[in-house]
Amino acid sequence: MSSGGFKSNVDFVVRIGGEAGEGVVSCGELFAQAAARTEYHVFSYPTYPAEIKGGFSMIQIRIRDWTVYSMGSRVDHLIVFNQQAYDKTIEDLKQGGTLIYDPDAVKVVDGLDATKVAIPLDKITTRVTGSKLGKNVVALGVLGYVFDIGSAVLDKLIRDRYGAKGSAVVEKNLNALAAGYEAAKSTGIARDVHLGTKSDEKTRYMMLSGNEAVALGAIAAGCRFVAGYPITPATPIFETLTKLMPMVGGRAIQMEDEIASISAIIGASFCGEKVLSPTSGPGLQLMGEQLNLASMLEVPIVIVNVQRGGPSTGLPTKTEQSDLKLSIYGTAGESPRAILAPSGVEDSFYQTIRAFNIAERFQMPVILLTDQSIGYRRATVRIPALERIKFVEQSVSSEKIVIPDPEHVEIASRIEATEEDLKNYKRYRVTDDGVSPIARPGTPGGQFTATGLEHTEEGRADYTPGTHMRMTQKRFKKLDVLSRALEKNPPEYHGSPESKIGVIGWGSTEGAIRDARYLAEAKGIKFRHLHPRVLSPLPENQIRHFLVGLKQVIIVEENYTGQFAHFIKGKFGIRPVEIHKYQGVPITPEEILRGIEKVARIVDEENITRL
Amino acid sequence: MKRTLQDYKSVVAPIWCPGCGDYGVVNALEKALLDLDIPPENIVAVSGIGCSGRLSHYLNAYSLHGTHGRAVPTAVGAKTVSPELTVFAVGGDGDGLGIGGGHIAHAARKNADITYLLIDNRVYGLTKGQASPTTPLGESTKTSPFGVYEDTLDAIPMFLAYDVSFIARTTSIRVKELTDIIKAAVTHKGMSIVYILSPCRTFPILDLEETKSLFQPLPEDHPRDNKLKAMEMAYAKDPMYMGIFYQVQKPTLNERLDLEIEKATRKHDGGKFYSMEELFRRFS
Asked: Does ipTM exceed 0.95?
């Protein structure tokens, strides 16, 4: 994404911490939304240090003059509501950073290298609102002054957020906002960042969570039927779709469990609709048998798995990349499906569209693997150019459909049976690419049985050896064709072609690895970075090409066992260095950099030895 | 051209045991569809696993023979997106009351306009004779060698408690009555369950003679909209009543969802759907 026209050299991190229920996250979200309405790019993520349990919550917001790839790690401005928040987060404050705190609740140690700004948030809140409620808005006022956000932006934010609750509530919150703003002003704090107001160049942006991006992507792809069951952290996708689907004439229904959800979308897809069900790992496990059925019936479905920490109930609100093997292999028998992993919020929108294109054109289940850290992060995302969204004709070969990106979006649908096909209709006709035209119920002459039993081309149950062999080949041929199509895509890697170190990641770690690459380059270490969006089937030739000339490969993932590394090692016979993080929180650029620096030293020593 | 019964038969011949009650069900179903003049292409038949699950193969329709116990939610999804089609779910006592029993309550709450043919032979026949939720207490089967020690699931009162909007019970050996009941169930707007006692000749837990003696029609003046009366008739064991126990009108799932769309769009440009651009703007 271009940085043209934006101010340069603005990149800072704000963190707000306090007791859960004090409005820490809502204050952060309001501030992030306000910042998103200025000319800057924003990335926010509610996060928790791994070792802390209990009622402490915080949110981190990074603001930059162009696309933000990761949440950052050192904090420039820390706002703490209570002593616990101070104790647990003060070590992350940059030297010379700014600490804003409530002097009635927080005791600051002597000698702290920071600009200290004491603002009695509790007292102000009680004075203005008559209760403790509204501290989040007082704090927003403080931030509004400190970052010089235009009052028009702030006022509109309050009206948007509280307008539905009536004018009295709006008035009270506007007073709280003003009180916070004035309190910050009276401290005489220096303002070195001026977020200003909205610029014309940034009117075509949204502030989206990854989960919302998936929901919008589904609607853009033409999905009009969703069945789901609430499960953290995928619930916001389902909530968003229950709200938006009826607005576009679609239907999103809540089922009694995940088995019923996937059953309902199979039934709806059988009747010709584009369908989706959002879930998380435990839900995907329940869906296993029906996922197989969709493969066997060759019914297109899209399942979104917003991964969370496991196993079992695990860490429902935390992030992990530990369902890869479940997604690729997890079912009885051998059933083809494709696995896609978006790299961030914006990519979630486009990969969701791509998931539908693949599911529809190849008549198989597609699992979109995101995770809590993508689902719950919010980022500024360019509104796609709708005039560039094209609907692909049935005659266009699946291999020619472009990968959706901000410049081009193509939307494909399943190949429907023509009159010619219906003359002697075989629903599971063996074809060159394994894809057989589908007759939609209601079409005269297309009646057939879709059965989970092994079946002939006509759809009749048949367990003879030849039939099972031929139909297994037919179903898997679709994966071969998809894999070949992937090879034709532009390579998904970045960085210096001469570098001797290669880093492979997948999913939500893209931004952290990218920022680690910038940090490494600043230190004179070069590496190239591969981040495949389709994890199964893999574009194997592209990966071989990436591996050529590398002395060491590093695979980064957020799990204990190295699931993707296992997959890569098995396919390509390499011995990578593996960086695993399994603390329920996203890996940071600095953590990746530390691993890379170690590898770089070894690679250097090897070079010296060889000289 | 006038359709005949042949138009509702697929090219696949049934492989049920000779004398199986399921033949009666498929015959009655074909006759009902012919009488109702429903074109085969407008029929979606979703079936589960078990002898009765094979029924969808024998029907000339858009058939989906899925997994064990999931016919009902699959049919709900099919009907939701195709209100113009006639959608059936078909399965046995193991499929519908054992593994898939949890789904009925929720399809009933939605009042999805599907017809569920639940064919009860009181045994797992396809797997060759194990106890099912409706196998009588004390009965010896391959998985109850010393007699069934669990109580029998009494399905009709359960469906009444779920407020399924059409509940009938009959048997597969009375094809005429079964045909009429299937026609009433298909015509009913909302979820209908036709509970069909169907004797198994190979594992005769419910044998033919017993099935014959069971049949006692509900009184002509049975008030179908009276749930308490229906409950009383459903619990009666001697005689055991057959017929339509309960029928009430409620909005169907499709009507409920159409209302959602109306609520979501009524304030927007004369009820038009929102454009993608308008959705994007809501997030900016």
From this structure: yes
